[in-house]
Design a protein that fits this description.
About 40% of the residues lie in helices and about 15% in strands. With about 450 residues, the protein is of the alpha/beta class. Bound molecules: pyridoxal-5'-phosphate (PLP). Pyridoxal-5'-phosphate binds next to helix 6, helix 12 and helix 15.
Amino acid sequence: MNNTIPTRIYLAEEEMPKFWYNLRSDMKEKPDPILHPGTLQPVVPSDMEPVFCKEAVKQELDDDTRLVPIPERIQDFYRAYRPSALIRAYYLEKALGTPAEIYYKFEGTNTSGSHKLNSAGPQAYFAKEQGLQSLTTETGAGQWGTALAMACGFYGLDLTVYMVKVSSEQKPYRKAVMETYGAKVIPSPSNTTEAGRRILEKDPNTGGSLGCAISEAVETAVKTDKCRYVLGSVLNHVLLHQSIIGLETKAAMDKYGIKPDIIIGCAGGGSNLGGLIAPFMGEKLSGKSNARFIAVEPASCPTFTRGRYVYDFGDTAKTTPLVRMQTLGNGFIPSANHAGGLRYHGMSAILSKLYHDGHLEARAENQTEVFDAAIRFMKTEGILPAPESSHAIKAAIDEALECKKTGEKKVILFGLSGTGYFDLSAYMSYNAKTLSDMVPTNEELERGFVTIPDIPQNK
Ligand SMILES: *Cc1c(COP(=O)(O)O)cnc(C)c1O
């Protein structure tokens, strides 16, 4: 039977999903409601619509609709670069000498190089449909900014990207791609916003953080006519769009009767992992599967494994609604030495709830070992992975080696969320052996935790 499984399983265009899957609809225990930071009451659409597109808000607050139709024009957008391949890692399996079967869903074959385009397209489309003229956003490593610049180019919208300052310095080519697609890129913190000026006053030499860039992007969106803010991860509607990853994977696996035992993804804000696991987790929650799910995060930004499950702000200036999630505190800034992405202080409310309720496992990995795994993978499978994705590779290899010890023939699926061509400075540090493992001390984590708002829900 194994020999009949091709190295790459592609769906035909007409087999692509026509609906997104809303995992929340099948969660008996829903994530806690998003709260208004002033009243501490659950938000209503009118609280969020000055900041986000109407359709995004509707999707964000909808816990019940199970299947959400993908509009025809978004299906068009998806067809420009999807379906993506599900790949059997025959070469890696052989190199490891494992009896396990390893599969990965490869989201890196579009120009932005990652899965982020799956939500950038829909969000730009919804903005256009609403009659907006421009969008703002933040970007860390640059993949989200690139994806959104592509989507805004496609649908004809202006875009301002606040890019975390250290990243904009480390990744000039990322910035160049965004600018070439027509976006305006501003290193954050900047003096173009009050939030940025406040942070610069306190710490003129800061390299910035995602939380800070979000504050700047939100402020600009709210102050600009016909402009809204879009976020590339964490939020429920982003995970909804990313369910396309899991739905395609499941359709491809079903064709060959493959059932994954272990599903692994890297977790920054949770969107690629949440998208990949969605239909499989749905089966698990309804008792139809026994699969294990593993989130992999960097030891330098350990949101699941050392964070707290409390209400927190999504940004440093404390302007966003409050979300109950795994968080390191909105003031947490990971070490600038950390090269592997996944630097956000918070985590998707959906994944945080699944983790809290014991449906999702998490582990933290050191970046040197993550890059070791990346090298092992690229030498056998040929693809140069994003450092973020390499966290998932590390865990997949570890699970496959565990099978080698026990002789078990498990089926391991992981998400290869992107390629690493714009992360070559990180690979250069790895080659020069100057990458180090930056693990925050408990005291450093405490400094982040004190920024968590002191509200009754925390107690
Ligand atoms: C942004 C990004 C991530 C992390 O974001 P999630 O929302 O957790 O998926 C992971 N991999 C790649 C390649 C990315 O660009």
